[in-house]
Each structure stands twice: as C-alpha cells, then as structure tokens.
Design a protein that fits this description.
Chain A is α+β, with helices and mostly antiparallel strands. Helix content of chain A is about 25%, strand content about 25%. Chain A has 18 helices and 30 strands. Chain A is globular. Classes of the chains: A alpha+beta (about 775), B alpha+beta (about 160), C alpha+beta (about 270). β1 of chain B pairs antiparallel with β1 of chain C.
C-alpha cells in the first residue's frame, strides 16, 4: 500500500490545472454555429391571470424561429408532484415565473423578441406566507391538486394549500408536557432565498433524426433528468442522453430537473435543432427555484435537570408556487425534526405549503438548516429557562448509539460522537458560552453554539456504480455517475481506488464529465451521499479488477490466485516478491513471448444500493429512511456594536464526525464553504418582497452574499468514528456545516441584545431595533 | 470622430495576439471575447457587474468585461485567464484550494494577478478592497485568502 | 448583453461632442453621453434606459486627465474613480470615493458618470460639494464654469445637450473633513447612509447619500453652528424629512445612524434610547 497516494492525505484536485487556466468547459461555454438560442419572458406579478398574450410582433422579428407559450403544452411537469406547466398557463403564481420563451438565431434576437411579447394580466392578491396560506380565507393556489400525480411518500391535501404533510408521532408528548418541570415555546421565520451558484443554470437540447434526445445541462442529477424526460415526454430511456459537464456550483439548486424540459420542448418546436437556454442571473434567482422558507413553532418540555421529555413542533415550510423538491424537504425535516437530541415523546407536523413566492427546491442541508434554526433557538430558550449553560444542556441531551430517532429507527455504533463534538466546539470557543464580554460602552462579545445532524433524504433504492478500465501503462480510468460540482468527489474516489489497488493516484484517471449513455447509473449528486455510495461502488470495482488481475497472473505465474497480491503497480507472490508481473503486462490481457494472448482487458465493475431502507408510516412516521447520520457541532464568536447593530463574526468553529477523512484539504474546503454559506444565509440573504409579492432584490446587486473579507477565522476539527458500511469508514460531509450556523449566530446575537432574534436575516438594523426594545 | 453602426470590423489585442472580429457597437467585451474571439475563460455570472466572474485586464487593470463595450477596447491590451501562463497566483490557487467549482476562478485570478503586479506589497486592507469585487460561493474565501498570501510571498521573494 | 442596436460615436473635441449630440437629437435619435459605461450598460441591458446611440466622451483627451494647478486640482469628467483615489493630491476625497461600487468597477466608473448617473446615490458629489468645488461644462457656447453648489440640487442641472467637462477642486481647502459610509450588511453595496461633514472656520457642511432618494446637503455658517446647543438634533432636523425607507433600511434606522454618526463626529451627546 502506497500511503502517499491513498486516503487521508490532501491532493490537488484532478481538474485543478484546467480550472486555473480557463480550460474547463462549463455548459454555457458550448457554442456551435448551428445552435439556436432561447430567451425567456418573466412575469412581473406574483399572482395574476394571463388574459391575453400577443406574440404577433415578436414572431415577425429578426431571426425568430419559434415562440412557446403556456398553450403549447398541455401537461404539467414536476419532480415529485406534477404541478408545474413548463411555462405559465393561464395563471401566474409567482414573481419571475416564465410566461413565454422565444427561440431565435442569436440570443440578442431572442431576447428582443421576448421583450416585444405583450402580455395582459389581471393582477390578483398574492399569498405571502405559509401560515397565511393555511387560513380559512386563503384562496387555493392549485385548485387541480387532486388530479396531480405524485410519488407515494408525500401526502398532498387537495382543497388546501398543503402540498405535503409529514407526521411524526412518538411516545406520549401530551403526558410529557403535563409532567414537565419547564416548558418553552419558540417561533421562528426564514424567508425564501437563493442558492446563488456562480454559474447560472443552462440546458442545451437537440433531437436527432434517430430520435435520440441529447441534453447537455448544468445538472447535479443527469440520471434524474433522464428518468423524468422518459416519464414526462414518453421518450425511450435508451434514447435520452444527458451529459453533465463540470458544474459551476449547485448546492442543491441543480438537482432534480431545471431547464431541461423546456429546452427539449423548444427544440421540438424548431424541428429538433439544438437550442441553448441559459438563465440570466435574474431568471436564475426568481424564475428557477431557490431555497425554501419557513415559519415554525417549537415547544420543548424538560425536567428540572434539563433532560428533554418531549417536543411539539409545527413546521410550515414555504414551498412557493410549486412543489419541486420542497415536498421532500419538508419530509426530510420531519425525519430529523428534533435536531441531534434524544427526545422520547414527539408530535411534529411538517408541512410544505404553497404561497405566491418563488418556488423552492433542494438546498444544501435539505430542510435541516431551517429545522435546526428553530430547534437551536428553542434549545437556547430552554437553557435560559433552566438557567443552564447552553453547551451543558446540549451535552446532556445529545444523541448516543442505541437511542431512537424521531422515526423510531435505532442509532447504531456507526453514529458519530456528538458529545465529543460539543466539547471540542466549547474548547475552540474558549468555554463560557453564556458569557457577555463588555468591550466598551456599546460593544460586546458573545458566543453561540449549536448541534447538527443529517441523514441523506433519498429514495430507498438510491444507487451508485463504478466502472474501472485500464491503460497500457497499468494506469486505470474510473468512470462513475457522480457529477463534479466543485465538491471534489472525483478526486476523493480516485484516492479510494488508489488506496485499494495500490496504484499511485496520478495513475487513477477519472472521467470528469458524466454521460448517461456511458456512465454507470447514479441517482444524483445530492444528499451528501456521493463519496459514500460511489466510494463503495468504486471499492467493489477495484475488487472485481483485482480478482481479474490475479486470475491472469495466476495462469502466467502458475500460482493459485489466493497466493497473489496486487500492490505497487504489480501483482506478485508476497513470500517471493520477485515472482510477479507489472500491472502493465496484465491489465490489457497477458501476451506470452510466442504471441499467444489470454483473458483480454480487465474491466472492473462495482455497484452499491442502499440497504434496508423503508418509507415512513403516514400516520406516525415510523420507519427506516435514514441510511447514515453525520453529527457535528458548531459555534461562533461575534462582536456586536449595540448602538448601530453592526456586528462582525470573529470566529466560526465546527467539529464534525465524518467517520474517516479521505482528503483533509477537500474535506475542510467543504466544511468551511458550508459555514460561509450558512453565515450569509443568516446575516444578509433572503428575498425581500413588496406587498404585491414582487421580489425587490431579485438581482445580485441587491441580493447580497458574503464577499472576500467578510469571512471570520475558521476552525475545523474532524472526528473519525468509523461508518462501518462506508468506504474506509467515511460518511457524507458536503452539506452538514451549513446547518448549525443560523442557530449559532442567532443564539449569540440573542444573548447580546437580551431577546430572541428569531427572524432571518439577522440584519444589523434588526439587532439595533431589538436591542432598543429591550432597553426601553 | 470614430463612428460605428451595425456590423463593424475591429481589431482586438487579446492575450498578446491581434484578433479581427465583426461586432455590433452594443456588444459587450464579455460576449465578444466568449462568442467571437473564443476565450470562454471569462464567465457570465450576472452580466451586471456584481460578481466579477468576467474580470479581465485592460492595459493591466482589472475591469468587468460585462460592463464594457468591445468597441471601447480597440487599441488596448486585453488579458484573459487564458493568457496567464504558470503564474504564482495560479500555482497558489491550486495548492491552497483557491477554488472548488471553478466558475469564479478566472475572475479572481485576473484580479489577484493584477494586484500582485501593481502592488506586490499590498496590505490586508488593499487586498480586501481589490478582491471584494468578486464573488465566490464555494470556498468561504479561506482558500482564496491563503492562495493570495502565498502567491504574494513568492512574488515578493522573486523581486528580492 | 444589450439586445438592441446602438450606434457608437467617439468625438475627439468638446465641440464635436456637443454638435454630435445636438444633431442626433435633431434627427430624433435618442442618444446618451457615455463615459465609464458601467451604469449605462446595466440600464440598457435591463431595459431601464432606452437609447439608440451613445457618445463616448473618452476620446476627448483633457477630460481624462488630472491637472494640478496653483489654486485647483482639475479633474476631467472621464477620470476613473480609482485614478482620483490614487492621486497624491486628492487625499481628502479618497476615503469617500474608495467605497463606491467595488475596486474593479472603479477602474471604469468615472467621476462624471457617478455624478451624472441616474442612480439615487451619486456619492462622489459629496466631497466635491463639501470642498466647494467648481464645475465646468460644455454647452452651445463652449465651456462654462460655475460653483457646483449652484448647479447641483438633487442632481446636476445642466442645460439640454450639455455635458460635464471638468471639476475644479480647491487645493487649499480649509476645514476638517469627516466621513462615514454605512451599508445594510456587506460593504460592497449601496450605502444606507454615507455622511460627509466638513467643519471649516466659516461654515459647516453636511452631505448625505443613500439617506434620501437623492444626495442631500446643507451648509450652515460657522457662527450659527457654534450657537447650537444640540448639534446632533439640529443637523438631524435638517434632513429628517428626506429620509427614505426601502428594502435596505427603514427611515427610522437611517435617522438613528445619522444622529449616532454626527454625535461621533462632533463629540456631541446622543442617547440612542
């Protein structure tokens, strides 16, 4: 085993040199002379009837090939719940919703024609919060919900605005609240917002004369796109070829299906010619889906020692106008609704609710960042009520192996050590979490801590695969269906293969792009399961290849396969290392001196499918949907100027149990990146709306995300409690660090001002205002 | 008086080579570089001057190519990421994790390269002033900051 | 990305530029003067502004120069903000200009463009007003000169077809210039309050950007100011009516920040509670 090339060390990414020289081809970099271009027209209204659409002028304009409106396609599309026409039909349900698309010879011509389409609207009153959408007076945003098809694990309630309700019932919460020493209740709010991946979404579609449909797309989920194109349009699966080049950031926003369906319909309208559809940043923010919003009520009952006896929760997730991934986001939040604490008695209703706001899809954390904000604010309220140190309260209640989760599955020994995570975070922050350090008259320093947990939310049959082929020099090519979105999984998988086969990692070549006609199936690059699942598939492919290598060598060397070992780019007899062959002599079939050849090339294949997963019971939530749990704790130290509300996060810390660190640098990059995203989410992000439901910050000039210099000092620690069924003990880590930041920041600021800061974003103005209210 | 209307033939000096291209006066430098000259390193992240992914150097100074007309740049030297060759900042971005998805990278590199060329001794405030013109969504800026500091050290060492 | 045809003119003299605009207007061509382009291109892309032609003033040499003379530093309207910030003689205006937009944009964004733009901020005007600068503009009869304060009311008020030519900043500006720019959160953003205060022997200047829907300023004779018992409240009272609420900040917060900052500038008392 060549330690230098295997796991546990930091390597530069496989695609590094191309990325720093502008040589990577992202989706929008693909341009061919025969390509046509699509441009979109968006609604300026949040809720309106489309009375009339006049396309006559636009049709006559230079270069225009086709115009697509709501009447051009009669069915709905939808990931889990078929509720969305490809462009608005008769009614507009959110600001920024696409109402028409134009195809022309250049993008400028298409855009000019889109601008020239005249739309007459009857503007109606929008619903602008999930709780408002549940009121008796609220109108029904999807009146035809009854007729929408949907997957079994979600539970829409036709005749209401509830697109999904997931119920968790465990123990006897009523009794727990009756006999509690202390109970607290918290209400929190988070607005919908956006992922702001730096690359706006793009899809290029072409229908060849063979009937083959070629789609090149900035997708995290090429196989999901393939499956849905089959489902929506009845195209033979074998004729759908989806290519995912390198992606300019996804964060969940490019999972599911995005522009691909519309690009296909546009191509269909122009005789199958290639049509390129690229979102402008504004369209990417409000026309395509963003992250979900939340209103939530959390009640906790505890005994005098601070042991949690029960929780009672209502999560009102703000799906926006369409369900997309949001129905499963609300379900995922239900499955882990208590945060990483053992709670014997639970009642939770997690609802996904339609509003007239931009719709939501998956977002890093998948419901957990929102849920955790509610829970962690409530935990600090509980600590206040008990006059207990906030860290001590969390340590007292943190989950341990053999505890049951909200869905009553049992945590096994593979569960990480959250108690240790809490202790490490406390130590990194210098302890005394509840302290308020007065710097001068108006300036204080405060700290906040949170716990986090997450299991992947995915279909029970989620799979991955790996194919290993070889080259004449004994090097290999690793082909998986994992999309490289910046997370570095391709490099991590190469490290796993390198470790397993003893081939230097430089000689493990990875196929960067995913092509559904060539790559083995892989559910999606989402849910932080890529490294674990594709890693297991890669290990199996390595084992398969190794067996073949041994088989060939066994014949040539005349030793049984069990006496052979593959390492150091050789296959040899360990007792007599001189007896062996170089891999380069074997991997394309062995050729004897007289020219006879045997076996042929080595092709290793491996696969993985999640085992023993079940859906949850619709009435109680009981089940086993959780493959593996990643646990961690986070904290911040903040300096606040109470006279202006301005604050600076000085330090952000995270301790997370990842089972095994495959690449320290890549792992740290994921953790730090997630923390930054969580900080932006908490402090400055989220859409702002006027009372007509129009987004007033739907452009990057106004939708602020963190910039260089806003970042604090980051401290990251990894624990390695092995995942027994993970590759070398590793488990997912891509999303988790975003989860704890809102709670940590809010808990610190709440301490500074002396009142709960429960409404994201926690702007300086809100800090000042709350602080003033308290002082008055 | 220079006057352009409709399709015009202009010469652009990009990455030390003269490119003859047909453009319209309203075409932005970004679109012309990507679609006419063929350098797709500069990216369209917002086309509104907010994200910096399209940053190129114009006579050695970073500018946002989406906020500039191509016809304005005739007679000037344009440098895109494709014109950077094995610079310290590129090497440091690789070794220090200055990127993940890579979409913002060209813009950051051009900006940071120009900073180290014009102000090799830039202090923290200057670094922030310059680099806060670009957005990155993946790294949390830690890797970028480390890369800039390392490249600065190497550039300073070379000058000595 | 601009989806509409645009004609481009690049005159080399002020006369040529003015005549170009005049004749285009006579032909009913909707033309704009163009300098750095950062705001014009954004507006044309979004359709917030429609134009058939732009007249790029960057061909006029002296408009891109900074000249230091006895009495004045003369700054051409096409000088990018970064060139001003980096100029050794312009230290007083530097801390005010160096927060506008971002560093990269400031390589293109010009002083003239910032002052004459359509955005409500026009922050670069604040130090120029504070220092009682002069401006030169070009109209029918050639180059005209005036005190900036005489032609700036919410925006620069020039005759039709005229354009800003140069700005003359007094070299021996008296007084103590203080400034503070505040944003809703991250610094690369429009200000929710950019306050510039200059206290000289003869007058006190207070100018604000981001506070109202346009830049606002007041000049108070020094002796009058010295008699104020509560300068914080007195100054706030002059501006309060103009304060705006928008998605970045409420009126109440803006007024609070103004009072808080004036108190810090003047050493005056302001109890925020």
């Amino acid at each position: 085993m060549n330690i230098k090339n295997g796991i546990g060390i930091s390597l530069t990414r496989k695609e590094s040199l191309d990325k720093v020289s502008g040589r990577v081809m992202y989706g929008s970099d693909n341009m061919t002379p025969q390509m046509l271009y699509g441009a979109l027209k968006s609604s300026p209204h949040a809720h309106a009837k489309i009375l009339k659409m006049d396309t006559e002028k636009a049709e006559a304009m230079k270069g225009v090939k086709a115009i697509f409106t709501g009447n051009d396609y009669k069915d709905n599309l939808g990931l889990y719940l078929c509720d969305k026409p490809p462009v608005a039909r008769n009614v507009v349900r959110h600001y920024g919703e696409v109402v028409a698309a134009v195809v022309a010879d250049t993008y400028a011509n298409a855009k000019a024609a889109a601008d020239a389409i005249a739309v007459e609207y009857e503007v109606m009153t929008p619903i602008l919060s999930p709780m408002e959408a549940l009121s008796d007076e609220a109108y029904i945003i999807h009146e035809e919900m009854e007729s929408y098809s949907h997957i079994k694990p979600i539970h829409p309630e036709p005749g209401t605005n509830v697109a999904n309700r997931t119920k968790i019932r465990k123990g006897n919460p009523t009794e727990a609240f009756k006999s509690a020493h202390v109970t607290i209740e918290t209400f929190v709010e988070i607005p919908p917002g956006d992922h702001v991946a730096m690359e706006p979404r793009v899809a290029i579609a072409e229908i060849k004369k063979t009937g083959n449909v070629h789609i090149l797309s900035s997708t995290q989920a090429p196989f999901v796109v393939k499956g849905l194109m089959h489902q929506f349009f009845g195209i033979d699966p074998g004729k759908i070829i989806v290519k995912a080049p390198l992606i300019g950031g996804g964060f969940g926003g490019k999972a599911g299906i995005q522009l691909e369906g519309l690009a296909y319909l546009l191509s269909l309208k122009v005789g199958g010619r290639p049509v390129k559809l690229v979102n402008t940043r504004e369209e990417d923010l409000t026309g395509s889906p963003g992250h979900i919003g939340l209103q939530a009520k959390v009640k906790i009952a505890a005994d005098a020692e601070g042991k949690i006896m029960g929780m009672d929760m209502d999560y009102y997730f703000n799906s926006g106008a369409y369900a997309d991934y949001a129905v499963n986001v609300s379900r995922a939040a239900a499955i882990s609704c208590t945060g990483p604490y053992y709670v014997p008695n639970i009642r939770c209703d997690s609802m996904c609710i339609y509003t007239n706001m931009p719709f939501a899809t998956a977002y890093r954390g998948f419901g957990h960042i929102e849920m955790a904000f509610a829970i962690e604010r409530a935990m600090d309220e509980l600590a206040n009520a008990l006059e207990m140190d906030p860290l001590e309260l969390r340590i007292k209640n943190g989950v341990k192996p053999h505890d049951t989760t909200p869905v009553q599955s049992v945590l096994n020994e593979s569960t990480g050590d959250i108690i240790k995570c809490f202790e490490e975070v406390g130590a990194m922050l210098g302890g005394d979490i509840g302290a308020i350090e007065q710097m001068d008259n108006n300036v204080v320093r405060v700290k906040g801590v949170t716990g986090l947990w997450k299991a992947p939310a995915m279909p029970t049959n989620t799979d991955a695969g790996a194919i290993l082929t070889f080259n004449a020099d004994g090097s290999c090519n690793l082909n998986t269906g994992v999309v490289e979105i910046g997370q570095g999984t391709k490099t991590g998988l190469a490290q796993i293969a390198s470790e397993r086969l003893g081939i230097p990692v430089d000689k493990v070549h990875v196929v960067m792009e995913v092509d559904t006609s060539i790559s083995p199936s892989d559910w999606a690059t989402a849910a932080s399961r890529g490294l674990m699942m594709a890693g297991m598939a890669t290990l199996e492919a390595c084992e398969d290849a190794e067996n073949q290598i041994k088989e060939i060598a066994s014949a040539v060397l005349r030793v049984p396969t069990r006496d052979l070992k593959v390492a150091g780019e050789r296959v040899f007899v360990p007792d007599e290392p001189k007896i062996g062959l170089n891999l380069s002599e074997v991997v394309l079939g062995y050729v004897y001196p007289n020219g006879n050849a045997i076996h042929g090339q080595v092709i290793g294949s491996g696969k993985y499918i999640a085992k023993h997963l079940t859906d949850i019971d619709p009435e109680t939530g009981e089940g086993h949907p959780d493959l593996e749990w990643t646990l961690g704790a986070e904290g911040v130290e903040i300096e606040v100027n109470l006279s202006t509300g301005k604050y600076k996060i000085l330090k952000a810390v995270c301790c997370i149990d990842v089972g095994k660190v495959i690449s320290p640098a890549l792992a740290r990059g994921q953790i730090v990146g997630g923390m930054a995203m969580g900080m932006g989410y908490t402090t400055m992000e989220g859409f702002t709306f006027n009372d007509r439901g129009q987004v007033t910050n739907g452009v990057l000039r106004d939708y602020k995300i963190m910039r260089y210099g806003d970042e604090p000092e980051y401290q990251v620690k990894f624990l390695e409690t092995p995942q027994q069924d993970g590759p070398y003990g590793a488990r997912g880590l891509g999303e988790q660090s975003v989860i704890g930041m809102p709670g940590a920041i809010a808990n610190a600021l709440s301490r500074a001002v002396g009142k709960g800061m429960n409404q994201i974003p926690l702007t300086p103005e809100k800090v000042w205002k709350t602080s003033m209210e308290v002082k008055r | 008086m220079i006057q352009y209307s409709g399709n015009v033939n202009i010469q652009l000096n990009v990455n030390r080579e003269i490119h003859e291209v047909v453009v319209m006066p309203q075409d932005t430098l970004l679109r012309v570089l990507r679609e006419k000259v063929g350098y797709t390193g500069p990216k369209a992240g917002c086309e509104n001057g907010d994200c910096g992914a399209c940053t190129v150097l114009l006579d050695g100074k970073p500018v946002k190519a989406c906020l500039m007309l191509a016809v304005e740049t005739v007679g000037k030297e344009i440098l895109t990421v494709e014109g950077l060759e094995d610079t310290e900042i590129q090497k440091a971005f690789v070794s220090e994790g200055g990127f993940q998805c890579g979409f913002c990278t060209a813009g950051f590199l051009m900006n940071a390269f120009a900073l180290l060329e014009t102000k090799p001794d830039a202090n923290e405030a200057e670094k922030k002033d310059w680099l806060s013109a670009n957005l990155c969504r993946c790294t949390g800026y830690e890797g970028i900051e480390n890369a800039l500091n390392l490249a600065q050290k190497r550039v300073q060492e070379k000058k000595r | 990305m601009i989806a509409y045809n645009l004609d481009y003119f690049k005159p080399e003299t002020t006369e040529e530029a003015y005549e170009c605009m005049k004749s285009l207007k006579e032909e009913k061509v909707n033309a704009l003067y163009y300098s750095g382009g950062t705001e014009v291109i954004t507006n044309l892309r979004k359709g917030a502004v429609k134009a058939d032609a732009v007249i790029d003033l960057k061909g006029i040499g002296e408009m891109s120069e900074i000249l230091v003379e006895d009495q004045y530093i003369i700054v051409g309207a096409n000088v990018p903000l970064n060139a001003m910030i980096e100029h050794v003689e312009l230290g007083t205006v530097m801390p005010i200009l160096n927060k506008i937009a971002d560093h990269t944009v400031r390589n293109a964004l010009t002083i003239g463009g910032n002052i004459c733009g359509k955005l409500p901020f026009r922050e670069a005007v604040l130090p120029l007003l504070a220092l009682n600068s002069l401006v030169k503009w070009v109209d029918e009869s050639g180059v005209k000169e005036s005190l900036l304060r005489d032609v700036f009311d919410k925006r620069l008020k020039l005759p039709p077809n005229a354009f800003l030519y140069q700005i003359m900043i007094p070299r021996k500006a008296s007084g103590k210039m203080m400034s503070k720019r505040m944003e809703a959160h991250t610094e690369v953003d429009y200000p929710i309050l950019h306050v510039v205060m200059n206290i000289s022997d003869t007058e006190v200047f207070v100018g604000l950007s981001g506070f109202a829907s346009f830049p606002v300023y007041q000049v108070v004779p020094r002796n009058e100011y010295d008699e104020w018992s509560d300068p914080v409240e007195s100054i706030a009272a002059m501006f309060e009516k103009d304060a705006k609420s928008d998605e970045r900040a409420s009126k109440e917060y803006r007024v609070h920040l103004l009072k808080n900052q004036i108190a810090l500038f003047t050493g005056g008392a302001y109890d925020s509670i």
